[in-house]
User: What shape does this take?
Amino acid sequence: MLCQYNIIELKLIFRKKMPRDKKKYILDDEKKIKLLQESRIINLATINKNGLPHLVPMWFILDANNDINFTSYHKSQKIINLQRDNRIVIMLESGTHYEELHGLVLEGEAEISTDKELIIKIMNQITAKYKTKRDKQDIAKQANKRVNVKVKVKKIISWDIGKS
Assistant: This one.
């Protein structure tokens, strides 16, 4: 069974529970940073050449300025998309039940860097965060094929359904 609710039940649930005053449900800055720090995966959207979203899950780190950074192969579709159009959208959320849902949508621009030292630094931080088994030689070798992407956030949309 894919869904425990039928369409009519879902409409009734959302009609009863959808917030009327949206400003009331916005995450405060402290909770936004905490959600970013505690999240392990972001959902990242770039724009394909046909104008449709290209959506992928990504590992990431926050730098000292709380900017999102991730590395990727320079020939990956997301990087090709960002080289053509640097607009990027990131979504992350937490919660299992409706009343627990909270999250962020970050709209911004991607800054792509080929600086090998920066790429190695970010890859080392990602390796530490996710406890992967990459050694320094492997990271240095992979860095030659990768770029770093720093997300410069221009707009933040947040929600915290449990604030009612």
Q: What stands out?
A: The chain has one domain: 25-163.
